[in-house]
Amino acid sequence: xxxxxxxxxxxxxxxxxxxxxxxxxxxxxxxxxxxxxxxxxxxxxxxxxxxxxxxxxxxxxxxxxxxxxxxxxxxxxxxxxxxxxxxxxxxxxxxxxxxxxxxxxxxxxxxxxxxxxxxxxxxxxxxxxxxxxxxxxxxxxxxxxxxxxxxxxxxxxxxxxxxxxxxxxxxxxxxxxxxxxxxxxxxxxxxxxxxxxxxxxxxxxxxxxxxxxxxxxxxxxxxxxxxxxxxxxxxxxxxxxxxxxxxxxxxxxxxxxxxxxxxxxxxxxxxx
Length: 272
Prior knowledge:
Layout: H1 2-39, H2 44-52, H3 57-66, H4 75-83, H5 88-95, E1 114-115, E2 119-122, E3 127-132, E4 136-137, E5 146-151, E6 155-157, E7 160-163, E8 168-177, E9 187-196, E10 202-206, E11 208-212, H6 217-231, E12 247-248, E13 253-258, E14 262-265, E15 270-271
Antiparallel strand pairs: 1-15, 2-14, 3-5, 3-13, 4-12, 5-8, 6-7, 8-9, 9-10, 9-11, 10-13
Helix pairs in contact: 3-5
């Protein structure tokens, strides 16, 4: 009898020695997996690192959509991202990643908010107010250069924002001539290309602007000829007078127009 009891006790002890390490190992494995999951959550800094690596916008957005995330989408954080050059499309993907923002400026849930269709049509000739970001000078730009603008106010379609205030817009220099001798004026012409919609896509827009510098070409030419007759070659110094460059100052505002109907993906935007 004692021998049986001893054998049973021994068996129990052996089983316990096998179970305890297994349980400990399981706890360690679970903790490691949990820690790994926590470490793999994307944060704002991870996005900045991917941009520094030179990854394309498409790759970064795909990574954001396919990964767990813990982005800071407060107004201050979004402003910082915009300041360092993160594109609207990437910022939109971060905001739409499902992260719950617990900061004080989070948008509260209200009972009178109604979901709207994810697709919105922007009609042809819809007006967009834009503002020039930097000076344009005929002395500095060349044909083909891009001109940067920003949207002055939201563009709403049926109560839903399709193009957001401060969104980027682009024009392109189509002609640039520097001011020259004999009083020749500088010239610069630009035309609009596109504006960035709420879903990060480019929407074609149209508008053309030309600028001319101050010119006294006729006066200078006449003076040079008349003086040469009286004073000889000294009169040619008049011809060295240079015309003024054409300059369009930053802050100038323009109304441009959507060029053809455009479809915008609102992705769960809401209206009151």
